[in-house]
Specification:
Family: Belongs to the methyltransferase superfamily.
CATH class of one domain: Alpha Beta
CATH architecture of one domain: 3-Layer(aba) Sandwich
Enzyme class: transferase
Catalytic activity: malonyl-[ACP] + S-adenosyl-L-methionine = malonyl-[ACP] methyl ester + S-adenosyl-L-homocysteine
Radius of gyration: 20 Å
Protein name: Malonyl-[acyl-carrier protein] O-methyltransferase
Pfam families: Methyltransf_11
Largest sheet: 7 strands, mixed
Strand order of the largest sheet: 3-2-1-4-5-7-6
Amino acid sequence: MSSSHFDQRQVRRNFGRAANTYEQHDALQREVQTLLLDRLGFYLETPERVIDVGAGTGRGTALLRKRYPKAQVVAMDLALPMLRAARKHASWLKPFQRVCAEATSLPLPDHSVDVLHSNLCFQWVDDLTALFSECVRVLKPGGLLVYSTFGPDTLKELRAAWAEADQQPHVSRFLDMHDLGDAMINAGLRDPVLDVDRYTLTYSEPRMLLKELQGLGATNADRERERHLLGKRHYQRMLAAYETMRVDGRIPATWEVVTAHAWGPPPGQSRRLPGGGEIASFSLNSLRGSRRR
């Protein structure tokens, strides 16, 4: 499944530029992080390796390191400046490794991860099939995947305001919870559980929301976005449209947040193929002795 529309080079640039401002605007990210920490309670083992995918500036990685002091904890992010900023959260008492990598190509051996964690990163990945197949590849059987991502109602007010100005995509599009669940099952992940929460943040004016998005690196990375500077008239028309949405004197912005967890499948569990049918994989060792003589 390739249902998203992102320019990955632009995603990397956006977050790289935001490395020094991200933590000035990450209140929602920290709130959602608490939901993921609660889900970690389902994992009752003592993990040896914990990976934080899309770690950003490392706040969440530091919390994972605190929760699992005996584990190898690794922060991974596609934007190198983010990982450099994460250094301040890796104390000498509770250090963690930092690796520059994309979520669909993790530099990890097969079945080597006990806990795979990602907070508000997966929404920027183009290919859900590749994403969750990679999760299955690196997770140990019975290992835990826990993540959060944005749903399609995210920034619906801003999207509607831009629609009054022109018909070009100015706000990134995100996938529905059901698409995510189907992709997880197709990849072979076991017992997925997904929930949706909606947050409404408010601002004194639309420009403050736009400043926050830029500070987070969460600006438009749609492949079909306009590549030239917007005219002032278009921008003013969007602002005027957004002003009509004020509630109690404040500008609202909706964030639809999907949180989910699932388990690494046992060896040999089948997974669905994009074109139909299923495939199962077994190690050579598991097949020894099965040949008839």
